[in-house]
Amino acid sequence: MEQKHSRRDFLISGLATALLAGCTKGDPFTESAAAEGVSASGEKIRLLSMDGQVIEVDKAFLKPVPDVHHVSAAEARKGIPGAKFVMVIDLSRCKNLKKCQQACAHMHHVDTGQNWVKVYPMQDAEHTAPYWQPTTCMHCDEPPCVKVCPVDATFKRQDGIVAIDSDRCVGCRFCMAACPYSSRVFNWEKPALPEEIAKLDYSPETSVPQKKGTVGKCDFCPDMIRKGELPHCVTACPNGVFFFGNMNEDSVSNGSETFRFSDLVRDKAGYRLMEDLGTKPSVYYLPPVNRNFKFEEGWETEREKLSASHDHHH
Amino acid sequence: MPGEIIPSQRILNELQPRRMGPWGKTWVAILALLSLTGLVAYIQQLNKGLIVTNLGDYVSWGIYISNFVFFVAISLVGSLITAVFRLMNVRWATPLTRIAEIIAVSAICFASLIIIVDMGRPERLMNLFIYGRVQSPIIWDVIVISTYMVISLLLLYLPLLPDLRLLLQSKAEANKRFHRLYRFLGSFWKNHPAQKRMNEKIITILCILIIPVAFCIHTVTSWLFATTYRPGWDSTNFGAYFVSGAFLVGAGAVVVAMYVFRKSYRLENYITNAHFDKMGKIVVMLALLYLYFNVNEYLVPAYKMKKPEQSHLQNLFAGEFSALFWFAIMAGLVVPILIMVFKKGRTPKPMFIAGLLVVVGAWFKRYLIVTPTLLHPFVPMHDAPARFMHYFPSWQELAIAIGSLAGSLLLVTFFSRIFPIVPMQETIDEVTAEQHSGAEQGKIIYQQMEEQHVTA
Amino acid sequence: MSRLKILILIWALATCTSIAVAQEKKDLVIGMSYYLGDNQLPYLKLISKTKEGKAFIPVPATKLSVYLGEQSDAALLGNITTDEKGSAIVPIPANLKRAWDSSYVLQFLAFSGETAAFASADASLEIRKAKIRLDTVADAETPSLRAAIYEITPTGEVPAAEVELKLVIRRTGGDLSIGEDEFYTTDSTGTATGEFTRSGMAGDRNGYLVIVAKTEDNELYGNLSTEKKLPWGQPPALVNDFSQRSLYGTRDKAPVWLLILAYSTAGGVWFTLIYIISRIFKIRKIGYSMGS
Question: CB–CB of A152 and C251 under 8 A?
Fold first, then answer.
């Protein structure tokens, strides 16, 4: 299994490899760059090493996040080899700030009012404790939505992600009826997108741009993963509610904390939603015990949102 | 030609398609206007997208889908009247076969159209054939609906062949302009015994074939719902429930059509009170059957009251949809049963009312099957625009739904203007057979005709 | 109500407005951090941001000039523009070799000029040249790692004590500590030892794990890191039914039973239909052969 580095780390280790290779002829970066999916620009600049040696480096490797090579349609359908992505949502940390939702909607240009990430006020029974429950797409291992799609427009990838090809979707909305988690939203009208976004070619990796008459939903941000970064909702949450990782590496991270996935789910009694339906979700929940916040605090966001939408109408 | 029965001129005259009277013209004008309104609404939907509907991320299927289910249901009648009765050698139903078949063809055509209307990207229709995956019930529906359409068309066309010959031989001025069409469709029909034999045989094969296909079309349509987890849809009863409901609404539609055609084409000699009486008994039987499945469908989950079902059922029994629900049960099932269970109720006028109630009740029943379920998702409705939390169709949806219903009626009306709505040759054959052998079959027609003759 | 009061009110309002106008230019904050990976290529990462409410938001397309030691053309590391996330990278260009070689405490300066939206801003960062090393501990009971940090001084390498560092296993999205502790602190010999307690972690195909020792935004040394590939993991147990036939598979992966069921049913019906259509043509043929 190829270890996926963060691009920043790659930059350094790539250069290190090159330096260790010493005075090799030609461009020592090309190989490692190709392996990591970064394409060279051909434009070289001369830099100093720690020890004061002069080396030549391709300009493409000197961006904070180097451009990742174009992911072909076939690759986007197959997914990232060797990976099985998983999310852990810690309910004890959520106070419904909805930063996850805002970041997701912003980065994917989701139409106003619709959400790919939703935060539900839940109370299972009259005398049980209420809690806030964020939901993304569950990326089920036996996805009922994929079962019913008539044209393979939504599909399961080898890395566990359930993605959508908006260029193929016929807009029948059977997947929406089939999904028990209400994860899917529909573009009822032409999405209001900035021109430079609207003219992009759609990719299931980015789920951008959304198209009129097709279904959209959380995609686990495979484009971010390929860049070595975490999905937008994970990085946006100030309380570290979302953990994301590769189950095949047995590790999940919220950016500042990283846990061994199996330990975390075992020690905190993680569970999945609607296990009885047999959908086998890829999203695990940690129960809302020893909470960081009172449930009531979460209503503040709801009130703000309500008054904001109220103002908006006037 | 030896052995050829000389057509009874009177039957021929009475069953020939006729020019429309002022009532007919008004009827066509109204239907055309309604269809055009639907078309205008659809053009608007094509331009702006499904935003012109009041559908949302929760109620993502609305009256387009319930209308689709309604059309599919009504189309089932073609197989009931034509195939089942023909195979069981029920002769009295002969005058009703063509009515049933044209309703079936018209309904299945508009079912296909309305499902395209519901698509977010209708221009990608071909994707269903290019990328179609056999795991999806939608693909099963596409296969089974197109198959059913072909079989229905054939079952409409093949028994028409002898009539086309009669029409071509006729000198009636009113139909002169259709002669080219008649010739195109049936100039090869010469009433040759070999032709007749062959036709008889393939009609019998089609009658056998259409029964399982008709069951499939409605069962598969029910699976569009039953293959999901949703409360109200997640039911093993659904296939049988849908098929029985389809038989009922189809039979109800035939009763209505019988009455209207009898009235407007003065077919009292052919569609007799006895026909109404017999159809009445059948409708009662089918209504009781459907009532039985309804009891299963609602009582069993209501007895258990599982949490996801609870709010859905309460909403139907006593909540937002209760008025509609009890209307559909009472008007669509109970009242028609009460009307038609009595002999007096099985006469044309009460039957017509009962038939209308069945059809209207059935339309709302389909709406109640599709929509309320979607308002009760497993996770509560939250973090979505407020307009998604409830559903009432927009004017465009209503216009398109009404337009499609009008369109299907228009198709039936035009058909009855061009072709005989009661099979001519078959009626003549039966009357002649009656005259020659005095057999029980066909006696009704004969007696009725005699009475009419005397009074005339 | 006197006129004076009204005048004062007007004056107060006017003053407030003029202050508001003057304050319309927002403050730009430049964040600067120093990175050194595997003791090889040093670079700076800059972030331009501004405070909005309680939170900082990135400011894209900010033009920054970055210098080593002094603000002069000769000491210019580069003129750069931040990307859409407000960040940019500046390596050390070859022409600053003399300045680099002669300094042991590195002084970095960053400036941004006044723009339409933002006031001018500057930032400075002082970093001591240092290296980080990582080795396995040879005779430990449990697998252990020893990281060492050395400061580079004119007199040579000197162990750096009391430096907080991390020992982690490289993972997707975020690195996992090698044991219970998140941080380790170097002792007077400049070393810190950590026990590897994550037995059975999935590694690469051959069971290798990439172990990283790093400092994170250390006040004196910035971000140093080095890594080692060690056979302390296990080959991952990859369970993937992606290529299997299933109801949720793609069209080319439909279950065989479904294919047989669907094709035999549809095929049977359509075979009969084609037969019937052929009979219709036969009927036509009979009719036409009789002449009109």
Answer: yes
